[in-house]
Write a structure and sequence with these properties.
With 302 residues, this protein is an alpha/beta fold. Helices cover 38% and strands 17% of the residues. The chain has one domain: Alpha/Beta hydrolase fold, catalytic domain (Rossmann fold). The longest helix has 15 residues, at 88-102.
């Protein structure tokens, strides 16, 4: 397998040497840094493993940090629809193959953001015995509550030709998210460029659109039943040590979504940041990263 041509990411921002797993002829890029209990970080859309760069550097001195780029994202291959099914089920299969290939003996900690919450909790639902701790960062693993609508911007991207053109023709999803995703500390131009760098052409932006199109809203949507299964499995993890770090100014994963998590897992620790947005690790690293480290240290795995 030939490694994909990589975008240029400044080494001072992303100082890692990634690895590739061959997944049916496709290059599945991931970070594997440090030693110790494995901490698996799963990104969402339209980010990539770059989102976890500072957390990896903080934890790798005492933990083994494993961070995949979903196919179509980051430094992984970006195939067309003829070679890859951009669905939740396939994402979970990819993650399962990666973790199986690493032959991890210990229980794992999941760190989940955005659509990574659904992917990670789908893996957890299938392998509850492997999950030791959970960290949630502005994410969901359940259907929208009754009466709550998908934000208009996402509906526009999901359902209209013009929206699709903006995502794939203008990189609107990646560029837009980096502009509005932080409230306390807006991203620098260099960081915004790094988030967008892997999505540098029409072909390379396929995943950012397919992720939005895969959001299940009705039982007829392909991933609806899979989301239902994950939602039904959440009580299995009610007593699993869990930390929730939440930017309350997220216009998608808002306070109402946080309220569902609080009700589902009432014993979870919660760090709610009233002035932060969707990319909470970017917005408040000085609070969130030390809190995650303290949480992990306070809940050693058996």
């Amino acid at each position: 397998m030939v490694a994909p041509e990589q975008p240029r990411i400044p080494r001072d921002l992303y100082p890692f040497q990634g690895k590739l797993l061959d997944v049916e002829g496709l290059g599945y890029h991931y970070l594997d840094e440090g030693h110790g209990d494995p901490v698996v970080m799963v990104h969402g859309n339209p980010s990539w493993s770059f989102y976890y760069r500072n957390l990896v550097q903080n934890l790798r001195g005492g933990y083994r940090t494993i961070v995949p780029d979903h196919i179509g994202c980051g430094l992984s291959d970006k195939p067309g629809d003829d070679r890859y099914s951009y669905t939740l089920r396939r994402r979970v299969l990819d993650l399962t193959r990666l973790l199986d290939s690493l032959a991890l003996e210990q229980k794992i900690t999941l760190v989940l953001h955005d659509w990574g919450g659904m992917i990670g909790m789908a893996y957890a639902a299938a392998h509850p015995e492997r999950i030791g701790r959970i960290v949630l960062l502005n994410t969901a693993a359940f259907h929208l509550p009754a009466g709550k609508k998908v934000p208009l911007a996402l509906t526009f991207m999901r359902s209209s030709r013009l929206g699709a053109l903006m995502v794939r023709g203008m990189n609107g999803m990646s560029r837009g998210a980096s502009l509005i995703g932080c409230k306390r500390h807006p991203m620098s131009g260099a960081v915004r460029d790094a988030y967008a760098a892997p999505y540098d052409s029409w072909a390379h932006r396929i995943a950012t659109l397919r992720f939005v199109q895969d959001i299940p809203l009705t039982p007829a949507d392909p991933s609806y039943a899979d989301v239902s299964a994950v939602q039904e499995a959440l009580p299995l993890f009610r007593t699993t040590p869990t930390l929730i770090c939440w930017g309350e100014k997220d216009f998608v994963f808002d306070r109402e979504v946080l309220g569902i998590w609080r009700a589902t897992w009432p014993d979870a620790e919660v760090l709610a940041l009233a002035d932060c947005g969707h990319y909470v690790l970017e917005d408040a690293p000085e609070e969130v990263i030390p809190r995650i480290r303290r949480f992990l240290d306070a809940h050693p795995l058996p």
